[in-house]
Design goal:
Elements (H helix, E strand, L loop, with lengths): L2 E5 L3 H13 L3 E5 L2 H10 L4 E4 L8 H9 L9 E5 L4 H10 L3 E4 L4 H12 L2
Length: about 120
């Protein structure tokens, strides 16, 4: 299964994502914001990143931009998991390197479908 980095300032969301994905065999590492995620990413690699957009310290779009500058993250899929559904935010995130979008609130089925679809590409 995949090794996944889940980044969200909400502990509830981090716990939900971790519980759902580890129950299906994935390994999940969590971070509370972009700054923490970058520290983790500098020393580890992942098959997929799930990131919120609106977070303190470093938002999700900045995180995507910084991850894409790391050699081992150039082609890692990154799904934005957010309440932001507007086309402007989607286009901006995609222009910085985001590969997918999952709107909150989501249920276990939608999360697994997004992860499985992205990992199968």
């Amino acid at each position: 299964m995949a090794k996944i980095l889940a980044v969200d300032d909400s502990m509830m969301i981090r716990n939900l994502v971790s519980t759902v994905l580890t129950s299906t065999g994935h390994e999940v590492v969590t971070a509370a914001d972009g700054t923490e995620a970058i520290k983790i990413a500098r020393t580890d690699s992942f098959d997929l990143v799930l990131s919120d957009i609106n977070m303190p310290e470093m938002n999700g779009i900045s995180l995507v931009s910084k991850l894409r500058r790391l050699d081992h993250f150039k082609f890692t899929p990154i799904i934005m998991v957010t309440t932001e559904g507007g086309d402007y935010k989607k286009k901006k995130a995609k222009s910085f390197g985001a590969t997918g979008w999952l709107l909150k609130p989501f249920d276990e089925k939608r999360l697994l479908a997004a992860v499985n679809k992205t990992l199968s590409k």
